[in-house]
Amino acid sequence: MANLIKKPTEEFMKKARAFLRISINDEVINTEIETLISSCKQDLIRNGITSKMANSEEDGLIVAAVLLYLKAEFGLDNKNYEKYRNSYETLRTELALTDDYISEADNNVE
Fold it and tell me: How many domains does the chain have?
């Protein structure tokens, strides 16, 4: 499954850091963010989302899912964990019930 996961682009990493309210470009922080993005994508795939869709950085719902996952899981002692995790899980469930996210019908996988 790991080989189905694409590393996030620098543009997406900037978006992730901004969403987390992080203004520095630190290697340790970036490693944690990249690990969480990979974990989220694996979780989406495990729940039926195609790898093509899970790796999309253009699909608004996938981007929202990844950012919600980051907001829930990033750092220690996150007082808003449950709120963001519940939002992520709700969105993940909705995506898993939508044909466009679970069907490889077009087979144009990069």
Answer: 1
